[in-house]
Amino acid sequence: MKKTLFIAALLCTAFVFSQEKTPPKPFKTELYGFARVDYSIDTRQSAQVREFHLNLWPLDKKIDSKGADINASGASNFLSVVSRLGVKASGPDVWGAKASGVLEGDFFGNTEQSIALFRLRHAYAKLDWEKTSLTFGQTWYPQFIPEVFPGVANFSTGIPFNPFGWATQFRLDQKLSNQFKFSFIAYKDREFGAFPIDGKQNSPVYNSVIPAMHGKIEFRNKSVIAGLGAELYPNKPLIESNGVKSNETLNSTSVLAYFKYNAEKFHIKAYGISGENLHHLVMLGGYASYANGTNPVTYEGIRTNSFWLDIASNSATTAPGFFFGFTNQDGTSANTSALGIYGRGINSTRGVKDIVRASARIDFKQNKFRLTPEIEYTAATHGNTQKDLSISGIENKVANFRATVSAVYSF
């Protein structure tokens, strides 16, 4: 009898435990980042950001009273402001999805005046099911592909040939098969917003009720990543002009394609984008305003085209790499003179017609330390701004050589 009762008690205990829910996963956090220092030296003055840390293109000729080119003057600097700190977190599942989040920043600052101050890069949460994932918060623009961007030593990461920046967004990723994925992103600019006419940061973005909408389809296997994307980017630069309410909006479009082939000993990356008003992606171009009968003004985006190629070794210790990029701006379709021009690399008299860049680097790596010397050549064609905002006429071709050494210790 006692033996029977003992077996029954064991069975009851086993039944109770079998009915208990699996304990929730514990919260986990992981600190990551790197300490980095860069030394660079240039042969010419350039359009630049943060005390010459990020060079965009060599400046046009500026001739003084003695016939000398003032901008044919070099520069150099030591900086550690791109050192980075971040934290990753994960915890119990949410509605059957794996839940995670990222908070990350660096010391680049949001403006020239705030250099060396901490700035926000990423701040998002993600829910990941078997075939569907949702991302909420600030992370990369959909045009920036984390697995397909230039591996240059220069912190530019390919700017102004490759889109760059972060935006607050809602993102849906849906697996269509083991190799194909569709993504839809709705976002609003933050740090790299459209050029404001009224001087209020990002006003063309938040004045637009409709967010930017981006869709792309991507193919992946063990060796290849390839994708195609398209975007509608609505802006409303002004809500009034000369005391009159303005309902005019600027609806710009863009398309892009990217590719990566990863072999055992090397990899190749390529990227191309063409669109209007790509200013927010830290690229050439922007938009212009025009007189428009019954409405105060109307707008049209300036078209920009860009392409780059990056080839590098996959060696774990010594990895040489080469980058080539080309970008230009093609103006607008308008046949009347613009009231105002709001963009990067163009004003009412002069503009950047095109930019070419070639660079070579070698990554020396051991454990978590990397030392990278790089030589970079950037040439720009400056010309007169035409009625349709194309660039031609009196052209100056100028070039800058930059030598960089970057040292990074990651953790």
Automatic annotation (TrEMBL):
SUPFAM superfamilies in the record: Porins (SSF56935)
Protein keywords: Signal
Span of the signal peptide: 1-18
Protein name: Porin
Highest classification ranks of the organism: Bacteria, Pseudomonadati, Bacteroidota, Flavobacteriia, Flavobacteriales
